[in-house]
Amino acid sequence: MPKTLRRSGGYPDRARSYVLRQAAFAVVALASFIALSLPARPAAAAPPGLSVTSRSGDSGGVAGHPQAVTPAQRRAVLDYWSPQRIAALTQPTSDNQPRSGPDGAPWTGSDTLSRTVGRLFFTDHGEDASCTATVVDSANRSTVVTAAHCVNSTNLLGEDNRWTDNVMFVPGYRDGRAPYGRFTGRLGVADATWLSNDQIDSLTYDAYDQAFVVLNTDSRGHGVQDAVGAAQRIGLDRPGAGQVYEFGYPRAASDPAREGLPEYTGARLAFCTGTAREYPGSPDFPEPRGQWGNACVMGGGSSGGPRFAGFDPATGLGTVVGDNTQSGFFTGAGEACGYDDPACTRHLVGPQFTSAVTGPLYRAAARHTG
């Protein structure tokens, strides 16, 4: 079975839950023990394609990686994503009866929203995977925002950093169809700090789990913003508290009663809405300030999806103030708690966009014209 995500919930959606981190500690400890009997090896080289173009404030620098640049490379990515490969990233449906709530439901509202949010396909360490991305207004009219772990990732040991391959965005994806075309990635943009992510030190790295992808034009020469006829605003330094909407293409649900419904198989767009809470993490794995999200059952595949403030369901437009990256758990009183506590409610959280971290990434991506 293809790997889903490294985040947004725990296996099968790999949200860096407590269990995953504990397992990572055990593996790292074993690796460290083995390493004591081995000769020292040279330090690893910087990841291929890394180019730090600027540094500002809390930003470690803007790192860009070329994806499909030449016509031959673009064609190779489009050919790679055959209907069969995409179908393999869609989970089977179940006999569960339809069930919806603020913490998760199929999106049946404005078509404008559906056009600007899509599925992001890629290959991570040789395994096919998918996330969610959003078309944001940009000077090049070809930019989407997503999570950094959908663009650049390490293995479970926090080693072998690689940029993802075969990047392709399908806006408005539904049941295997691409109503507005398919767009190959041209440039991945992430903060250089993220490239040192070790899969364990959440306090250091989780604020940087955000990225942009500059897309190539479609077969008619249209940028994605022109092809879908809309784009979402991006907001920096907005307050985290308040009502938000989160969207994604999850391939799993944390609620067993909704597992296997079409909107939790990767086939259709889902959403959740509610009051955002800031997730502080756990004593073992504290989080940096600015990890916000609302109660939500969307699992793996929803990573990179937008968190909107000021969203208007009638127009389908709002301001993207953050992205989905992982699970957080809260009691009814709003206190952080463990994933295995039945009194806790799962939230889908991620970094709030800031001028210090997000600003340089967005400007670098939005101005890129190839």
Structure description:
This protein has 370 residues and is of the alpha+beta class. It is 16% helix and 28% strand. The protein contains seven helices and 18 strands. The protein has helices at residues 18-35, 71-80, 83-88, 111-116, 202-205, 224-228, 358-367; strands at 62-66, 105-106, 117-124, 127-135, 143-146, 152-153, 162-163, 165-171, 183-191, 211-215, 233-234, 242-248, 270-278, 291-295, 306-312, 317-323, 326-330, 345-351. The strands form three sheets. Strands 2, 11, 12, 13, 14, 15, 16, 17 and 18 form a nine-stranded mixed beta sheet that branches. Strand 3 (117-124) and strand 4 (127-135) form a beta hairpin. The longest helix has 18 residues, at 18-35. It is globular, with a radius of gyration of 19 Å. 49% of the residues are buried.
Write a brief structural summary:
With 370 residues, this protein is an alpha+beta fold.
Query: What coarse outline follows from CA principal-axis ratios?
Result: globular
Low-confidence stretches: 1-6, 9-56
β content, as a range?
25-35%
Number of strands: 18
> Radius of gyration over alpha carbons?
19 Å
| Helix and strand composition category | alpha+beta
